[in-house]
Amino acid sequence: MIYKNNTLKHWGQTIRAVLLFVVLIGVSCKEAPKNGGTVAAKEALKVADQESEQTGTPLYRTSITATDIDFIRASDTDAFKSLAYVEQGAREMPGSESGELMDPGTFVFQVNFKEGKDIEIWAHSAFGTINAAKVYADKLGGRLGKLPLYMRNKLSHVVLHKGDSNAFAEDAGGFFVLYSENMDERISTNDLEETVFHEAVHVAFDLAHAKSKEWKEAQKNDGVFITEYAQSRPEKEDLAESAIFVYTKLTHPGRLDDKVVQWMETNIPNRLVYIEDLFEKTNKK
Question: Are strands 175-179 and 168-170 parallel, antiparallel or unpaired?
Answer without folding.
Answer: antiparallel
